Amino acid sequence: MATCEKKPRSFPVPVIASVIPVSVLLLLSIITIFWRLKRGRLNVSLSSSVGLSRKELSLKSKNQPFTYTEIVSITNNFQTIIGEGGFGRVYLGNLKDGHQVAVKLLSQSSRQGCKEFLAEVQLLMIVHHKNLVSLVGYCNEHENMALVYEYMANGNLKEQLLENSTNMLNWRERLQIAVDTAQGLEYLHNGCRPPIVHRDLKSSNILLTENLQAKIADFGLSKAFATEGDSHVITEPAGTNGYIDPEFRASGNLNKKSDVYSFGILLCELITGQPPLIRGHQGHTHILQWVSPLVERGDIQSIIDPRLQGEFNTNCAWKALEIALSCVPPTSRQRPDMSDILGELKECLAMEMSSKMSMHDSVEMNLVLDTDMTPNLR
């Protein structure tokens, strides 16, 4: 009986020649992706959901285009105005699933045009962080342009710091807002590749949730730089009076440290309750000019917002002020990085919370001692 020996299969030379280059290319692609991941070059897309709640993730995942007819319906024919800025008016809206949203409509007279609108859409489609306002969707229908954001129940920080504000922020809340804002800005500067410079950081662009979590808004003027060391010469207007980096104003050179200066002014606002430009009988005084002589005298009580009525830890207040002043030297090279600022602010917040806990424990101990020492009258 004959046995049949199974011969090994042979592949034609052309097939082998075509498979090898494809395999090599595939291997190189995998190595490249792994290397970029290790280097953090894909941070924008891969770390985009860090710190987001389930509700925020459900909103973020939409990023849907809306028709102008849908925008009219969502806002109930633009019935309720909840804000206004350089881009246009902001209206309260309601989606079909029950989520409240804020709809920013580009006005015909807006100084921010189509270019800034598209820049904001593109950035918010890829940049996501718990301390950045999330984009739900957008409308780009001929001359009708709108951005649809998550709704922020407590408005903006500027409103909360006004003298006639009904809900006065306490010291711990102010420090937490500072930490939240620093986290959002640090993510833009160091968590994104390329780094993103906000360019118009100010109290009206810090929005607050119902739990007073702070989120940075208004990316219409943002610039993404090719490398961390880059600075760009900007010819068009950027920033808001009182917050603008003096070095940028003089030279037009924009970099991450321009945002650091603006953050320092914002922190001074939180500490003092004063606006960046303080109105007086002889015109406006910049907040740094107002605070400098008080710092020289060591008069922290006159620096801290008087509405707090002394309800703050003095050491913590001085530390917060030192952090703020470290952000505002006239030259950018003298200013710290946002990662260092964030670390210092977290220490400051921990100091305040520790002080409150110690005070609470002390009060409880006194109550116990008072109870033990009360005579038992029969």
From TrEMBL:
Protein keywords:
ATP-binding, Kinase, Membrane, Nucleotide-binding, Phosphoprotein, Receptor, Serine/threonine-protein kinase, Transferase, Transmembrane, Transmembrane helix
Matching SMART domains, A to Z?
A: S_TKc
Q: Where in the cell is it found?
A: Membrane
Kindly give the CDD domains that the UniProt entry links to this protein. Answer: STKc_IRAK
Pfam families named in the record: PK_Tyr_Ser-Thr (PF07714)
Source organism superkingdom: Eukaryota
Q: Which family does it belong to?
A: Belongs to the protein kinase superfamily.
Q: What's the protein called, per UniProt?
A: Protein kinase domain-containing protein
Q: What is the source species?
A: Populus trichocarpa (Western balsam poplar)
